[in-house]
């Protein structure tokens, strides 16, 4: 029997809403409705993606629905990319085509001027994220699938980093200086110089989604629409292009400093101060000058 999955996130009302809508769609299409949870202590995109990927490849669900939450917006696109299927984000309506049994995913397009109906005919699963408050929650019946990743080492690593993550999260919210790195940093080891600058300034290190997705930094450090919203006095964006989703997280920063080797990078349109050049030359020079000012002669 074909399956319709709803990804379960604890304490997110959208899950019950999706289950209620999922029940209607599943009945129309003769599918089994399943709520799928990943039993790990904290969300980390790569572990959750791996856990879901294995089960999706085994059970081959027809449809997968996620809440358009910070986690859903991170996990669903990663999983869709790994599966080579499509994803319709921020749907406001879901219907089943009675003839083809295909999911019709309805969402606003062109700045909300039209409602587009998107279908993903040939790929499996058909995936969508849906905002909270679109469908009413109803108690319905479903099968509960709990994925318990067979990886005690993953659990241990997650538990070990948990304390660190909490400290980082707290620090990003409370610090006056955030030094954030993006893909322009080149390789994960180069984050070392951002750590050094953060140490000199007494600040914290943040990251773009691109580097979090590549596993260079932890999700707790991601700044932006699907990460943290921060409000430091100074935000130094290093090798970050300035995508709208990243800028969304730093609107409340008092001063934005951008370091980028591309003078046309969009981040310069928003920066208070822009430094055009190689981040790996500029940041060490900043550290050197700060040391010279604060610890002359050392
Ligand atoms: C639903 C959704 C949610 C998203 N949420 C987020 C989010 O929360 N946070 C987020 O960050 N993104 C988010 N994104 C992704 C976002 O659209 C961008 O893809 C991402 O921000 C790009 O990261 P980046 O700037 O590090 O990489 P890129 O866009 O690849 O930019 C790298 C930059 O580095 C510069 N560069 C290269 N080498 C050097 C060098 N040696 N010195 C200096 N500069 C250099 C380049 O000129 C370029 O401008 C989201 C996207 C979607 C669709």
Automatic annotation (TrEMBL):
The keyword Electron transport applies. Pfam families: ETF, ETF_alpha. Keywords: Electron transport, Transport. InterPro entries: DHS-like_NAD/FAD-binding_dom, ETF_a/b_N, ETF_a/FixB, ETF_alpha_N, ETF_asu_C, Rossmann-like_a/b/a_fold. CDD domains: ETF_alpha (cd01715). Residues 4-162 form the Electron transfer flavoprotein alpha/beta-subunit N-terminal domain. It comes from the Bacteria. The keyword Transport applies. Gene3D superfamilies: HUPs, TPP-binding domain. SUPFAM superfamilies: Adenine nucleotide alpha hydrolases-like (SSF52402), DHS-like NAD/FAD-binding domain (SSF52467). Belongs to the ETF alpha-subunit/FixB family. This is Electron transfer flavoprotein subunit alpha/FixB family protein. It comes from Pontiella agarivorans. The lineage of its organism: Bacteria, Pseudomonadati, Kiritimatiellota, Kiritimatiellia, Kiritimatiellales.
């Amino acid at each position: 029997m074909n399956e319709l999955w709803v990804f379960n996130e604890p304490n997110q009302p959208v899950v019950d809403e999706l289950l209620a809508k999922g029940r209607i769609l599943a009945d129309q299409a003769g599918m089994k409705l399943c709520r799928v949870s990943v039993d790990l202590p904290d969300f980390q995109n790569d572990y959750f993606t791996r856990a879901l990927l294995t089960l999706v490849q085994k059970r081959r669900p027809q449809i997968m629905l996620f809440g358009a939450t910070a986690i859903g917006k991170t996990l669903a696109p990663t999983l869709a990319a790994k599966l080579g299927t499509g994803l319709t984000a921020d749907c406001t309506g879901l219907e089943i085509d009675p003839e083809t049994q295909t999911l019709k995913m309805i969402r606003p397009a062109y700045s909300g001027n039209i409602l587009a109906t998107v279908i993903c005919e040939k790929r499996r699963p058909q995936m969508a994220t849906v905002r909270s408050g679109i469908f009413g929650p109803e108690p319905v019946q479903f099968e509960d699938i709990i994925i318990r990743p067979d990886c005690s080492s993953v659990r241990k690593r997650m538990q070990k980093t948990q304390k660190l993550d909490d400290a980082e999260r707290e620090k990003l919210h409370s610090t006056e200086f955030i030094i954030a790195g993006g893909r322009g940093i080149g390789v994960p080891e180069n984050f070392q110089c951002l750590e050094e600058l953060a140490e000199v300034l007494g600040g914290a290190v943040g990251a773009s989604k691109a580097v979090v997705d590549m596993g260079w930094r932890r999700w707790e450090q991601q700044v932006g629409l699907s990460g943290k919203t921060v409000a430091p006095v100074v935000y130094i964006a290093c090798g970050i292009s300035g995508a709208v989703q990243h800028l969304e997280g730093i609107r409340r920063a008092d001063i934005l400093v951008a370091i980028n080797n591309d003078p046309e990078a969009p981040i310069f349109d928003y920066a208070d101060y822009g430094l055009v050049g190689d981040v790996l030359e500029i940041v060490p020079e900043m550290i050197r000058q700060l040391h010279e000012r604060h610890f002359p002669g050392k």
